[in-house]
Design goal:
The complex is a heterodimer. By secondary structure, chain A is α+β, with helices and mostly antiparallel strands. Chain A has helices at residues 18-26, 34-46, 87-103; strands at 51-58, 62-68, 77-84. In chain B, the strands form eight sheets. Chain B has a 16-stranded antiparallel beta sheet that branches. Chain B has a nine-stranded mixed beta sheet with strand order 31-28-32-34-45-44-42-39-40, with helices on both faces. Classes of the chains: A alpha+beta, B mainly beta. The complex binds fe (ii) ion.
Chain lengths: 109, 753
Amino acid sequence: MLNNDPDSAHYPIDASRRDLVEEFRRAPKGPHSRELQMVLHRLRWESPGGRYVLVTVEPGKRWVLGRLPGVRGAPVELMRNKTYESLAAAEWDVFKLRWEALTGQAIED
Amino acid sequence: MRLGGIDTTSILGYAAPLAVEPGGQVAFHLSSDSLQKVDVTVVRVRCGDPDPAGPGLKLVPMASPVNGPRAVSHQPIRTGSCAVIADRPALRDLASFTVGCFLWPTLPGTAAQTILSRWRDDRQAGWRLGLDASGHLELAVGDGTGAVASARSARPVLAREWLFVCGSYDAATGQLAVHQISLDPQAGRDRSSHGLAKGGAGLAWPQDVPLVIAARCTGEALDAPRTAAHFDGKIDRPRLCRATLEPGAMRAQCERINPAPGDPDLLAAWDFSIDIPGLTVQDRSAHRLHGRLVQVPARGVTGANWDGTANDWRALPAHYGAIHFCADDMADCGWSADFTLDVPTDWPAGYYAVRLAATPADGDPVESYVGFFVRSPRARPAAKLAIVVPIATYLAYANGALRMDQVHAESMLEGLMVLSRDDLYLQAHREVGLSTYDTHADGSGWRVSGSRRPILNMRPRCNTFNYGNDTHLIDWLEEKGIDYDVVTDEDLHREGLAALRPYRCVMTLSHPEYYSREMWDALDSYQRAGGRHMYLGGNGFYWRIAFHRDLANVIEVRRDVTGVRTWEGEAGEAHLAFTGEAGGLWRSNGRAPQRLVGVGFDAQVFDRSAGYRRLPASHDPRAAWMFEGIGADEMIGNFGARNGGAAGLEIDRADPSLGSPPGMLLVASADRIGYGGMPAPEEFRTFHRGLDGEQNARVRADLVYFPTAQGGGVFSTGSIAWVTALSHNRYDNNVSRLMENVVRRFLDPAPLP
Ligand SMILES: [Fe+2]
């Protein structure tokens, strides 16, 4: 099956394409250009740095970042120092974490 | 745990039965491992979804003697299926013996697993054949004084490869032997080997211990025994002989489909192909050592002798003499009831729940619910409209954990997964039993789902898919003052057309995806007899399922080689064990949903939702009445609580080639779905670029209407998100208007145009 192997996402990401970073920052929910769609697919499928998720604290108001353990029955790791007041802020933060984990280059805000 | 927000999981429970008439009783089975006391309140659910983008949580407290503070305790969940054969003198008196079967292990080498046993762990007494923690076949005997001897084969077994296995004990010498023979011994797969050991001679076996297949007794509660060391995988044609047989002779016993009952050596020859829908296992030997199954393991599965001659167990049961047991099977928690609610005869039918509240000193406030349903009295239908509660869908999706186990969810959503407290609980507590979208720990699909366990996503405040969305419709009916009765789809299954006959109009809700033949036939004959049907969802009438003939609120699903399927069954296992019928899609069973309701599933779109644009047929006098008060150029439902549109999540389209009726009017369509619109696999035969909703106009949701026989008619919206648009702009919107126009006309006895 093609659809459950995190290592199968292999679209190459060009770390110099800061225009794509900007495009994502402007509109995290899209719609996105073809190029950004493929970059996002790589980041989301492979999820470098761990399989990030959000956990709702207050519906529609507050979320905390978490990481799936990759093992059934083990608890979700909660990163309590990372909370968000909007989904867009969370998307941007996770984008930066993954971009850096994959390209080795940090994105400054 | 303190996280901020509301704790929805520190107490959990289930209601039995799941649905009841006024005047009936529902028992509540609760457990908490942290709370000693909770406050109980029965509530009627008008909207169970707290999302501020929708109507918001609306729960109506009901006066009831069960309300008030109540002590609660912890009741554990013990997972794992097995067969239990009560103790008999013939088993107790056994001296030398050989036990064997064909075996298809699915999780060897993870933990000790038992194949056949007459053993109690507490006294280390009896005998057991199994796999040890490293996947080696092992026969152990214990005399109850603590001395345990075991023979262990030299090589570990391979996962998902058939073997013949046997173990023997010679009472005269104390000799123990195990043998395993790989059935496909080439290309590196051969694990044939054996092991010998010396145990005590003349061992006596313990009293009153049942023989267990696929597990062993802990020693507690021997009449309904606690079991441990469950087996994952298939066991085929197990035999027990009272002599020390050579492996060849024992294998011949296991090969035989019809063993000679008069064979003096043969003590038991279980044939799992007898009464596959049932919950017992039958012994073909003269001893009749029949047993009962615990936690509903998968039956109607291929045995070691299956060769593709038949794909339907009814055609060749001899090839289906295996049972697939799982150590995480869970059909019934078996908790004792905490209290029973007598549902007053004057309570309106509807969605109900008990609220369990507490304010622990060291955590977030607890507000947990147990959902149940009150259906309208059969003898006294009150309204002309009925909603059909999709119990089958709720069960199929019960406790889905798939998105945490697979990697695709975020790509499908085009955004981060947002987990709830319920998800956190499910991730850590798989023992509650998962949904038919999930896989067992051994990788096999969950085929059976029942309600005698906490179902986290069938109650107020739960993840919105299905239950929460459906309550948006209830909220709208209440808001508009439209009287409605309530029936369940399981009523359609068990009572047929009688469940619908009292009603002029019925509504199926946001996601009536799982239908048995009986359910379909009831709805179809209702439509053909002048009934009016409003299908207000998407992906409806999709999978063919069965309810269990004896167990209430238990369904079976088989997924085969098409449809949006999150697992795929083994070859030869597409037929339902509960009935023998082919499972899979209704579309593959000669009944595409288009034939019943005009539209059928075509795509998922979880990133954004769309609006419908009116088509010329919406101005046809046969349909124009639906659009009264709606402008000719208005987009319908370009708003809504789920991603901003009424067409979204899972969507359906019309297709004459799949049975959309020639008399149908396609009045509106949402065909600008975007690149998140992913077509269902049965919608394309070869894959190429250009099949997504941005490029392909057939990835769409269609709004249709057609008259049926005797003045009846069908109105379908083809989208799960539809009902979540109803409350937009304080219910003043064109989705609500269109719905009101249709329901008022469908309730008018004058024949539909
Ligand atoms: Fe579905």
